[in-house]
Amino acid sequence: MPEMDPIKNMISATDPVHNDPSVPDGEAALRRMLAESGEFSDRLPRNVVSLADRKHRRARLGGVLTLAAAAVTAGVLVATNLGALTTDPEPASTVAPTAVASPTASATASASVTPSPTPTATSAPAVWTTFTDTTGQATFELPASWTVSQAPQSIDGGAYNTVVVKNSTGKTMSTLSLVYDGTGGPVCADPKPFSTLDSVIVDIPQKAQKLKEMPRGPSGFVFRIVQGDKIYGSMALNDAELAPGTTTCGLYNSILGPDNMPFAHFGDTMWLKPDGEEAALAFDSVAEATAYMQTQDYQDTKRMLISLALHPVNVAAAGRFVSKDGSVSFELPAGWTAKDEPAGTPDFPATGVGVFDESSKRVARLYYGLGGGLGGGCGPEKYTATELDSAPSSLSSDWAVAAQVRFSYRVLDQTSVGKGFSYQVGLVDKSSGQLMNSCLMYSVVSGAPRGSLTFADRDSKSLDEPVFQSMAEAKAYMGTPEYTKLKSMIRSLKLPAQG
């Protein structure tokens, strides 16, 4: 008889019927039954288990244990032959998931065991914060790592604002604009197809009277695309009905907002146009645009836009200062003071006003009249001038339009001689506002009805003027409360007598 292999020997050695001394030898028992006389019955009391049943029960139990031991042994043998299991698994994408019928754990690596998910590095949930703009009319949520800058202003006693939201890398994600009025739409010779890939209704009331004049849909978040040379996309709040048909020259992002507050734009662009001008998103295909919805940037921006709440508030308009002679007026920021100061001469009459902040520091000076005393000299040095900010002024008379009056924030780079960046914040015209290499800057407007006009933190360079040590510091100044108040105040200047 050939020698049994090791596994077969082990199975044979575990035979409970062959090795259990409590179980009689079946063959011996049969010989005795045939050789010996006696009476017996094949019926047993109900509470007595037959020898055959007992043997079968033990045999079944022993068989289960035998198979388990054999499987473990086989696993050990395989592991011994193949060496340590240290090779990397195949990529997850190449293994199809298997449905598991039983959750019972086993000592074997078989399909009956639910595999544990492969540990992966996970980032902590983003921390979110709530932002309320300076006017108190708008509130929304945003990731705590994102930054916000704003430029509030007052127009005819109303409070308006522009809020720019950037992510942690400095990329602009959305802009909230509380504006005085809307703008007309673009026209084009060849409208392009558009579609909406995602939309969510939000609970923002709409101006009742405006809604009657311009029937619209409910306020909501929309992710829309338009097909030009590429697929251009926009994420924004919108309540206008979609353009009729399937093509467009431009999709407007705007909501009416509640009564007693400005119109609102909140999104990555005000107009989504087929030429991609000012479009924040561009894709090679609709499929790519659809896939973008699964990105973290999309999810975070969508949550931020949807969270917007608009609150009509009784914003206390800044007090309006009017000079004693009534020739000038402007909005005075809360906490600041202004007073008339001597200016001009009997031969050259003028109006002078000094403006001071909460700490009584002089922050601006206004001069309006004949003369002005502007002058100054400098050496042969020439420095580079850079305009960091510009905006229209409230002066709208013909003379102001002809002179191209505007608000301007400029710096003069004097770092080559160790003097840092000097700066001026004020009104300029087409002449004084030119950017050129020079040792001087002026903030002055010519051609006003009563002569020259200056309204600025300083009208020309001076020896004691403050400077910034770097361009980054000069740019950061635009985010300060002082700059915001200066800009709003200077832009609000009116000349009541002559416009």
**Range of helix content:** 10-25%
End-to-end C-alpha gap: 123 Å
Tally of DSSP helical segments: 10
Biggest pleated-sheet summary: 5 strands, antiparallel
Number-wise, the strands total 26
Radius of gyration: 42 Å
- What is the beta-strand fraction? 25-35%
Low-confidence stretches: 6-23, 33-123
pLDDT average, as an integer? 75
C-alpha geometry? globular
Class from helix and strand fractions: alpha+beta
Short description:
With 499 residues, the protein is an alpha+beta fold. It is 20% helix and 28% strand.
Question: Any chance you could write out the topology, listing elements then pairs?
Answer:
Blueprint: H1 6-13, H2 16-19, H3 26-35, H4 51-82, E1 128-132, E2 138-143, E3 147-150, E4 153-155, E5 158-166, E6 172-179, E7 192-201, H5 208-213, E8 220-227, E9 231-238, E10 247-248, E11 251-252, E12 263-267, E13 271-272, E14 281-283, H6 286-292, H7 296-306, E15 309-310, E16 319-322, E17 329-332, E18 337-341, E19 350-356, E20 362-369, E21 384-392, H8 398-403, E22 406-413, E23 421-428, E24 445-448, E25 451-456, E26 467-468, H9 471-476, H10 481-491
Antiparallel strand pairs: 1-2, 2-15, 3-5, 4-5, 5-6, 6-12, 7-8, 7-10, 8-9, 9-14, 11-13, 16-17, 18-19, 19-20, 20-25, 21-22, 22-23, 23-26, 24-25
